[in-house]
Design brief:
heterotrimer, A mainly alpha, B alpha+beta, C alpha+beta, B: alpha+beta, 2 domains, C: alpha+beta, 5-stranded antiparallel β-sheet, 5-stranded mixed β-sheet, 4 helices, elongated
């Protein structure tokens, strides 16, 4: 490695430039005075897509949501919904590469709320809010045919396997866990978990890191047999939509008119979102039910406190996911002993010349945030579990077959199963 | 929820009450969504942001080439001609063990052959980047910042970048050189022609 | 709901099935190809293939071989082409994969389209499930898995939570005399060498062997003959050119002649000789010591201490580990050094490891020994000839590097593993002067060679100069701006660390083999006449004082707190306020 220096030195002599300066952005070699009429090429760099594209994105989203509502509620057209699904897959998926997406937007909001230096693009807010509003009016029509992730799974479903109801109830809590951890990570600056766990964005971009490609393939294969595995058991945005869908103004119905109790639609839903009628009387003594409910109600605050405490201490562990904390721990650990080759992070940190104290202080601040966030996260999750337990302990009588509003994706598969209002020759497709 | 038995016998009353509850909850949900929107809007900006790397912080670790969700990476080298010394022996172009100062393949540093060396006048040479070929490995950037003026540096090319919500390279950049930049200043360039004219 | 028109449906299904099968096989093949391709693309640098590297190296030795050059070019072209072909394959493969995936899914739908099972309501609800029983089961499963999750979180916390806690920021300087193993000794700060505490001078030229006493403020006036300013003065039984090392209230020295090699432990406050240890009965040591010259002797290398142990090495090749009370912990014979003057490289210590630069004509090496047992931590052979310089330790770039000067190279080793990090052939002839370090740069200088500055991290030569009075036995000491170089002739020079240009030089009336040290912004240099030349470490030469010891000296002083320990040819002096 001495050679180039010697040669550089020679050339330096030519330039009558006596001293090599330390590395960095220093003008070691002055720009030559060209004798010829040489002119430097201009540095031309392509700009990003203009704001028009983003306005278009929001407009397409709004239109797609409205159209989905119209197809699902007014037209009751599965075909229309499917066509819209294909369009969304093409536009939001393959054309826009799955970014910006409503599912991940919650992280931008969390980061924007926690970090004053980050400003949330208006597009992202629109992508987060518009599907929520649509859900408040029409139910989860966003999931039905606007979300490209849902579209992949909707179209891939081939031989649905019925998942038992108890499993649906249990796994249905996972999105809440995912959502709260993702919000915690985003708010503390540890990273965007939802984006990293996005199953299909690799397909849209036609290229993905290995782990994402594998996750995507697994989810795709699973969606051949299990209806929308990501939407039902993982999607954090779906958790929010499900909550809002419970109180939506209008919602998809299985039958266009009065239910005739023919039971034909009973197995129509591959997502386990059709609720069958229940008798007025609970299948157990009233006293037993009341006692159970009282027990759960009494236990929920205790569980919440325990979970909050767990979240408080567990925050430290979670904070290792934050690159800054990880670096501080690594530098501290390496200083205390162990022989390991220097990681790029460590080398870069030392190159930056910042004092370790500053890094350690940062790490402690971040851990403090994780402790607070972890406490909230624990308490909230406990309350969610409590709400689910209470919901599972209540007996509500139903007379008709109706969609479970929280779980129904408004996909319209069940329309064809209902004989009410169908012309005699018509057959389900 | 635990509806008294008599409501079943008098559906209109029950429906009204359920309806009332439903309406109340709906109003609550609308208010909540509105509040979130308002909160978010107070922290919002009209212009969207794009990922870019600060060449002053870059340590040329090579992760830009490998960590991008795209292959080849959206990051490529750019050349600030205003900063260039037009050296005959270029730290970014020539192998450290280069036998001769020429363009022979064995003397070239760039693994992709993306750096083009053109003679201008003795002893000055121009170095241009073939963007098609550049893979963003930063080998030339390292050489140029160690031995030269640092006129070669990496930038996220916005024609290639898909602007992920969280940039995969930013997540692993050891120097923390990545940040979101506003759309009207999408590049962080070293030096500018005016400053060095 | 059976399908009324049967024939066309069935054809659709057949097409669907065939298409699905074909596209599935296609997907699997393309995926496998792409996985391999991606692996190759990510792991293989096109120009780092072993064959190409070997050829290029060959070309480096035989630059004018036209045929070889042609070979290199051809291989180079092949490697580059392979890289781009792979990249193209990956891009094309991704498109093929997505298209095939779409075809696969569509054909599955086509296959299923004519065959939707007729709804067959089962007794007892959808799927034969009783909703109430399902709810009960869900309650149980949720409660149990929730409890398990909580337990898992606590388990993880108890196992890893302690290690996850962010470190408490600590002030840079931290007294660590009480706990020598503390993290303060390898301050990861990156701005300075290993610990430099007020209470220690653990090796030749102090902490890290850098010649810099960070916290000390030694006196500038004394008189050894009258005893003015001298705290105590103690006789040293046997002579030696090693310099005192200090930890807390103990000072250690070695002395030797043909008969005996000894280690002395002194009380730092009173000067009382507390104990004497010797090297009798070392297995493998030769009966007669090797021939050495009188200006080196057997006790030229200075000792090293970590506050709990004292390590000494002698010209016989014997290395000895003692506790602070002189009890022998271990002893080894490293082999008799083949060295016409005698072995002179001092020991250097880092926590529980002692480093030995063992360059001699019988095969040079650098070793790291466990201070507790004397066993090898690591050993690295060196392609150098004999030398008399001592190692230094730097933490530039956050990595602990051992830097050694010898002929022909200055080399850096990972202090923890012994791996050679870089090596530069910049020196020549007989090297007695140790390297210096400041601000990320290593400086090496020796008479009949040159002065060079190297990047401590990469080993790149930053500057190199020959046109100076260069040191021969004493070692330079560096600040951020200046490099101070002694000579045995008495010429002392100060050069700029940025470019090696002389800032000033001064001719003293005497020189010596001792090395200067830097303390409180002043340079202390003990010359052979016993005078300590004290002057400012500044842009211009400014003499502060030159107090005399009253006897000749070949020594590098130890500066600890407000005291200075100087070894004369007969006595050990402690200079400082009462």
């Amino acid at each position: 490695m001495t050679r180039p220096h010697r040669l550089v030195g020679l050339w330096l002599g030519v330039c009558a430039w006596a001293m090599a300066l330390p590395s960095g952005a220093v003008q070691r070699f002055p720009r030559p005075d060209f004798k010829t009429d040489y002119v430097s090429p201009e540095l031309l760099l392509p700009g990003p897509g203009g704001p028009m594209l983003e306005v278009l994105d929001v407009a397409v989203l709004a239109a797609a949501l409205a159209l989905a509502g119209w197809f699902a509620l007014r037209q009751r057209s599965r075909q229309g919904l499917l066509l819209l699904t294909l369009f969304s897959l093409g536009y939001f998926g393959f054309w826009r590469h799955g970014c910006v997406c409503a599912v991940g937007a919650v992280q931008n909001l969390a980061l924007g709320w926690a970090d004053a230096s980050y400003t949330i693009p208006v597009t992202v807010i629109a992508f987060f809010v518009l599907p929520l509003l649509a859900t408040l009016f029409f139910g989860r029509v966003f999931c039905a045919s606007v979300c490209p992730l849902g579209a992949v799974q909707e179209l891939a479903l081939w031989r649905p396997v019925r998942t038992p109801a108890w499993l649906n109830h249990t796994l249905g809590l996972l999105p809440w866990v995912y959502l709260s951890v993702a919000v915690l990570f985003a708010a503390t600056g540890a990273g965007f978990l939802i984006c990293e766990g996005d199953p299909f964005v690799g397909f849209f971009r036609m290229g993905a890191p290995f782990h994402m490609a594998i996750t995507g393939a697994l989810f795709l294969v699973a969606s051949l047999f299990i209806g929308r595995p990501y939407c039902r058991f993982v999607c954090p945005y779906g958790a929010l939509l499900g909550l809002l869908s419970r109180v939506s103004r209008r919602h998809v119905t299985i039958t266009p008119d009065a239910c005739v109790q023919c039971r034909l639609c009973e197995d129509a839903c591959p997502y386990g979102a059709i609720r069958s009628p229940l008798p007025a009387a609970a299948p157990e003594a009233r006293a037993t039910g009341v006692r159970r409910l009282a027990l759960i109600l009494a236990a929920v605050p205790l569980i919440a406190i325990a979970a909050a405490a767990t979240g408080f201490v567990f925050g430290n562990f979670l904070s290792r996911a934050h690159p800054r904390v990880a670096l501080a721990l690594e530098i501290h650990r390496e200083a205390a002993n162990t022989a390991q080759p220097m990681s790029l992070e460590r080398e870069a940190f030392f190159t930056s010349g910042l004092p370790t104290e500053a890094l350690y202080n940062d790490a402690r601040t971040i851990q403090g945030r994780f402790a607070v966030g972890g406490t909230l996260l624990g308490a909230l999750l406990a309350l969610t579990v409590g709400a689910q337990l209470i919901g599972l302990s209540l007996w509500r009588s139903r007379t008709d077959y109706e969609p479970d509003r929280a779980r129904c994706f408004s996909c319209g598969r069940c329309f064809a199963y209902c004989p009410v209002g169908r012309k005699p020759q018509e057959t389900p497709k | 929820m635990t509806t008294p038995p008599q409501t079943d016998n008098a559906p209109p009353a029950g429906v009204t009450r359920r309806q009332f509850l439903q309406n109340g909850l709906w109003g609550l949900a609308v208010a909540a969504v509105g509040a979130i929107t308002g909160l978010a809007a107070s922290r919002s900006s009209r212009s969207s942001h794009f990922w870019q790397l600060d060449p002053a912080k870059c340590v040329q670790c090579g992760r830009c080439e490998t960590a991008c969700v795209l292959t080849p990476s959206a990051v490529k080298a750019v050349h600030a001609y205003a900063l260039c010394g037009y050296c005959k022996l270029c730290g970014g172009y020539h192998q450290p063990q280069a036998q001769r100062i020429d363009t022979a393949a064995e003397n070239q540093l760039c693994p992709a052959g993306a750096l083009i060396r053109t003679f201008i006048e003795d002893p000055f040479y121009e170095y241009t980047i073939n963007e098609e070929r550049c893979i963003g490995c930063a080998v030339c950037v390292k050489g140029c910042s160690q031995f030269g003026n640092g006129s070669l540096f990496l930038q996220v090319r916005h024609d290639r970048c898909v602007n992920c919500n969280e940039c995969a390279i930013a997540r692993v950049c050891p120097a923390g050189a990545y940040r979101r930049v506003p759309a009207d200043h999408p590049y962080l360039l070293k030096g500018s022609p005016e400053a060095h004219a | 709901m059976t399908t009324p028109v049967h024939q066309p449906e069935s054809l659709r299904r057949i097409i669907g099935r065939r298409l699905a099968a074909v596209s599935a096989v296609f997907i699997i093949i393309v995926s496998l190809l792409m996985a391999t391709n991606r692996y190759l693309l990510k792991t293989l640098d096109p120009l780092a293939t072993p064959a190409l590297k070997a050829l290029s190296e060959k070309l480096g030795r035989d630059a004018e071989n036209v045929e070889l050059r042609q070979q290199v070019r051809e291989l180079n072209w092949l490697a580059r082409r392979a890289f781009f072909v792979r990249q193209w394959q990956l891009e094309t493969g991704a498109i093929l994969l997505v298209v095939a995936g779409v075809v696969f899914v569509l054909s599955l739908q086509l296959m299923a389209s004519g065959r939707r099972p007729a709804p067959a309501p089962q007794p007892g609800g959808p799927g034969g499930e009783n909703p109430w029983r399902a709810a009960a089961r869900a309650r149980r499963v949720i409660a149990i898995s929730g409890a398990l999750l909580l337990l898992a979180a606590w388990g993880l916390h108890l196992r890893l939570g302690g290690r996850s806690r962010a470190p408490v920021p600590q002030p840079f300087q931290q007294p660590s005399a009480q706990n020598p193993g503390s993290a303060a000794e390898t301050n990861p700060n990156g701005r300075a060498g290993p610990s430099a505490d007020a209470g220690e001078w653990p090796s030749f030229r102090g902490p890290g062997g850098l010649g810099v006493a960070r916290e000390a403020d030694p006196p500038i006036a004394w008189d050894g003959a009258t005893g003015t300013g001298v705290l105590w003065k103690a006789e040293v039984p046997r002579g030696g050119f090693n310099s005192p090392v200090v930890w807390g209230d103990r000072v250690y020295l070695a002395g030797a002649d043909e008969q005996k090699c000894e280690v002395y432990g002194y009380d730092g406050d009173t000067g009382a000789l507390l104990w004497t240890a010797d090297t009798e009965g070392v297995p493998g040591a030769p009966a007669t010591p090797p021939e050495v010259t009188s200006d080196t002797g057997y006790a030229a290398p200075s000792l090293a201490t970590d506050g709990q142990r004292v390590i000494a090495i002698f010209g016989t090749g014997v290395i000895l580990g003692l506790d602070v009370d002189g009890r022998r912990l271990w002893v080894r014979h490293l082999g008799t050094p083949v060295n016409p003057y005698g072995h002179a490289s001092s020991l250097l210590i880092l926590r529980d490891t002692v480093f030995v630069q063992f360059d001699h004509s019988g095969g040079s090496s650098v070793k790291a020994l466990d201070v507790e047992t004397g066993r090898d931590r690591w050993k690295q052979d060196r392609g150098t000839v004999k030398s008399w310089a001592s190692p230094i330790l730097t933490d530039a770039g956050g990595r602990l590097r051992l830097i050694l000067s010898a002929s022909p190279m200055v080399a850096a080793y990972d202090a923890l593993t012994g791996a050679e990090l870089w090596s530069k052939d910049v020196l020549s002839n007989e090297i007695g002067s140790s390297p210096a370090y400041a601000n990320g740069r290593v400086f090496a200088a020796n008479q009949y060679a040159k002065a060079v500055a190297l990047d401590a991290v990469t080993g790149e030569v930053i500057w190199s100069t020959e046109d100076l009075d260069l040191p021969d036995a004493g070692s330079p000491v560096a600040t951020d701006r200046h490099l101070f170089m002694p000579t045995s002739g008495g010429t002392f020079s100060c050069i700029a660390t940025t470019n090696g240009v002389r800032v000033w030089s001064h001719e003293f009336d005497a020189g010596g083999y001792g090395s200067p040290i830097l303390a409180a912004g002043r340079i202390y240099w003990v010359t052979a006449d016993g005078k300590t030349r004290i002057f400012k470490a500044a842009d211009a030469f400014e003499l502060i004082a030159q107090p005399a010891l009253g006897e000749a000296s070949v020594c590098t002083p130890a500066a600890v707190g407000r005291r200075l320990y100087i070894r004369g040819v007969k006595h050990l002096f402690c200079i400082g306020p009462k």
